[in-house]
Amino acid sequence: MDTAIEEKYTVQPILWLRRWADNLLSFRLRRPDAYRFEPGQFARLGLPLGEHGGQVWRAYSMCSAVTDEYLEFYSIVVPDGQFSSRLARLQVGAEVMLDKKAMGFFLADRLPAGKDLWLLATGTGLAPYLSILQDPAQWRRFEHIVLAHCVRRAEELSYQDFIASLCEHPLWEEHGHKLQYLPIVTRDAPEGVLDERIPALLANGRLERAAGLSMSPEDSRFMICGNPAMVEDTHRQLMKMGYRMSRQSAPGHLVLENGW
């Protein structure tokens, strides 16, 4: 193997696997001592293509806290997906290539001060929020944090117990009351659960009412992560409501990340 290529990544074993549904799994890799990241960033993971050689790489947001000794990831399994179909066949002990450098700018710190932080996700777009919600600074920074997770079927609402446990974490227990979790199911939603796509819930005001909070450019800050259609449609809807992207030269109200 070319030494210059080899030095760009390490090879790490899978420490733990959980299959939430036929198309969803979480897994943990051993974390190299020198690996650093910020909550909301992603890693590049690689797998060999097989006997013909070559590699396939994909970006995965970290679910884990920056202090954890492992790196946790949340993945959808696409039956014919070049990466995820191979990943789904692996077991604990199998090895995955890990790029040495974390990447991305999907960071809550890019947002200026505000009262309410809205974390909007579809599917595995939930992943970076699990890391962000293990950052004590964000619990202290905002008065309210709303995590809205939209899926097609109720069985895809992963990590519910973990999310509930966050409110009692000893590092920010005094702020635990600030978090609201709003599950959204668009097909055969259980009674009392929101049942429309996030852009529609923003447009008709149901998301505000469910959280018991009023949105305003003065108070509200948004993070958007999920499939490209959701990210684009949610961004457009928020622009109609008077919000704008946050940029280094011009702080705004929202940051976004495509989960695909």
UniProtKB/TrEMBL annotation:
<protein>
    <recommendedName>
        <fullName>ferredoxin--NADP(+) reductase</fullName>
        <ecNumber>1.18.1.2</ecNumber>
    </recommendedName>
</protein>
<dbReference type="InterPro" id="IPR001433">
    <property type="entry name" value="OxRdtase_FAD/NAD-bd"/>
</dbReference>
<dbReference type="GO" id="GO:0000166">
    <property type="term" value="F:nucleotide binding"/>
</dbReference>
<dbReference type="InterPro" id="IPR039261">
    <property type="entry name" value="FNR_nucleotide-bd"/>
</dbReference>
<dbReference type="InterPro" id="IPR008333">
    <property type="entry name" value="Cbr1-like_FAD-bd_dom"/>
</dbReference>
<dbReference type="GO" id="GO:0034599">
    <property type="term" value="P:cellular response to oxidative stress"/>
</dbReference>
<keyword id="KW-0547">Nucleotide-binding</keyword>
<dbReference type="Pfam" id="PF00175">
    <property type="entry name" value="NAD_binding_1"/>
</dbReference>
<comment type="similarity">
    <text>Belongs to the ferredoxin--NADP reductase type 1 family.</text>
</comment>
<dbReference type="Pfam" id="PF00970">
    <property type="entry name" value="FAD_binding_6"/>
</dbReference>
<dbReference type="GO" id="GO:0004324">
    <property type="term" value="F:ferredoxin-NADP+ reductase activity"/>
</dbReference>
<dbReference type="InterPro" id="IPR017927">
    <property type="entry name" value="FAD-bd_FR_type"/>
</dbReference>
<dbReference type="GO" id="GO:0042167">
    <property type="term" value="P:heme catabolic process"/>
</dbReference>
<dbReference type="InterPro" id="IPR051930">
    <property type="entry name" value="FNR_type-1"/>
</dbReference>
<feature type="domain" description="FAD-binding FR-type">
    <location>
        <begin position="7"/>
        <end position="109"/>
    </location>
</feature>
<dbReference type="InterPro" id="IPR033892">
    <property type="entry name" value="FNR_bac"/>
</dbReference>
<dbReference type="InterPro" id="IPR017938">
    <property type="entry name" value="Riboflavin_synthase-like_b-brl"/>
</dbReference>
